[in-house]
Amino acid sequence: MNASAGNRGDKIRSDCWVSVELTNSGGLDVRIKSKVERLFGKEIEQQIKDICGFFEIENAVVEVEDKGALKWVIAARLEAAIRKVKKIDSGFLFPSVNSNADYHPDDVPRFSRLYIPGNSPKLMLNAGIYGAHGVILDLEDAVSPDKKAEAQILVRNALRSVDFYNTERMVRINQLPAGLKDLDFIVEHGVQLILIPKCEKAEDVVVVEERIKEISGDDNVIYLMPIIESALGVVNAFEIASASVSIVAVAIGLEDYTASIGAQRTDEGRESFYARSAVVNAARAAGVQPIDSVFSEFENMELLKANALNSKSLGFEGMGCIHPAQVKVVNEAFSPDEKEIEKARKIVEAYEDALEKGFGVVSLGTKMIDAPVVKRAQKIIDMVTKLK
Q1: Are 126 and 267 within one domain?
Q2: Model-level pTM?
Q3: Residue 301 domain-assigned?
Q4: How many CB atoms lie within 10 A of CB 315?
Q5: What average pLDDT does range 340-361 have in this prediction?
Q6: What band does 43 get if pLDDT is binned at 50, 70 and 90?
Q7: Which of 4, 36, 163, 358 sits at a 20 to 30 Å CA gap from 297?
Q8: What is the distance between the alpha carbons of residues 164 and 364, in angstroms, rounded to a whole number?
Q9: Domain check: are 74 and 130 in the same one?
Q10: Phi/psi at 261 (nearest 5 deg)?
Q11: Which of residues 49, 68, 86 is at a domain's end?
Q12: What average pLDDT does this structure show over 25-47?
């Protein structure tokens, strides 16, 4: 009986392929093919023996074709192969971690979130250096069905091992109910925010939140971002956005939404104007951030900029990125410009001056200033401070 995991071939980098064949005798026969075998062969062999020992494998042939994989990648690929060959889905190599104790997600800028395929370790290694406010390790659409189980383990190990710097660590799970199994691999291993795809009703959020609490209790708080991707989801947008205090943002996914209503997605976005406005209003009413969809034409930066500015004008606070090159353009588009910042400062100064003088009415030039305007201006100033 044998099974394999990982990727192999001439174009593979920072990854490996591992095969495990169980035998009746002979102990562990570890066969390593790697350009760094002379330097790290013994270390890799010992790692393989340690992991096999954890899973109580005494007799097996283990083959490794290494293409520059780090230890956490080799561990993930070997564990995935072992789970397949032994048909097990429980038991973990690592203790749980709670890295969210000092994490405060309220009003965190989320101008950009960068999607990283959950089965591509080479893309994970430097994901935190591009300046995105969030990195999404994607277990859903970016992973082929036959690689889902492998991706669960790889994403878990990446959460524990990769330095994402100050980037918010996000994971998009699979559509429910399959996504509930993903939670077993990420909840206690460093994820800060979970995206719930194709969310259509409040119960979808509740089920995810209940499963998170079953895994780690009430102490390890993990925040949620439902993604609305259908006509039914848009109709229930406020119900979804207000389903839990753990929700900090609501996103819209336009590729699936336009398919849901039988329309083609266009650059002008007329077909999605109602849905995007509905999601913005629902999010604002629920007191959470509205986040726009990804923009798929990653080579057209001018069109991306125009799309991001239009998104901002609708009330969104950020959007998704499918390529690192998009991050800078999106961040600049959603950042307050000099005119916005200067106007915000004048509004706050006028408001504070009026309070000091005991005036009941606040004005700036010929315009009256009310509380919502001051609150919005203060938010811009606070945002600029956080972005420095």
Answers
A1: yes
A2: 0.88
A3: yes
A4: 15
A5: 68
A6: very high
A7: 163
A8: 43
A9: no
A10: -95, 5
A11: 86
A12: 92
Looking at residue 357, its pLDDT comes to: 67
User: What is the longest distance spanned by two Cα atoms in the chain?
Assistant: 89
Report cis status (omega within 30 of 0) of the bond before 177. yes
Looking at the fold, whether 73 and 194 belong to one and the same domain comes out as no
Is 314 found in the same domain as 286? yes
DSSP 209-257: HHHHHHHHTTTS--EEEEEE-SHHHHHTHHHHHTS-TTB-EEEE-HHHH
pLDDT surpassing 80 at residue 6: yes
Nearest alpha carbon to residue 114 among 333, 331, 300: 331
What pLDDT is recorded for position 109?
Answer: 87
Least confident stretch, 41-50, 302-311, 361-370: 361-370
Over residues 122-136, the mean pLDDT reads 96
**Alpha carbon distance, N-terminus to C-terminus of the chain:** 56
Question: Could you give the number of structural domains in the chain?
Answer: 3
Give exposure, 172-204, as e/b (b: 16+ Cβ within 10 Å). bbbbbeebbbbbbbbbbbbbbbbbbbbbbbbeb
Single-letter amino acid code for the residue at 351: Y
Domain boundaries, position 142: 112-334
Question: Does 301 have pLDDT greater than 60?
Answer: yes
Verify that 148 and 295 share a domain, yes or no. Answer: yes
In angstroms, rounded to a whole number, what is the distance separating the alpha carbons of residues 29 and 57?
A: 11
174 and 74 in a common domain: no
Whether residue 307 sits in one domain with residue 251: yes
27: which DSSP letter? -
Q: Which two tokens stand for residue 311?
A: 């998104």
Q: Are residues 172 and 204 in the same domain?
A: yes
Q: With 90 as the cut, is the pLDDT of residue 15 above it? A: yes
Residue with the bigger pLDDT between 256 and 339: it is 256
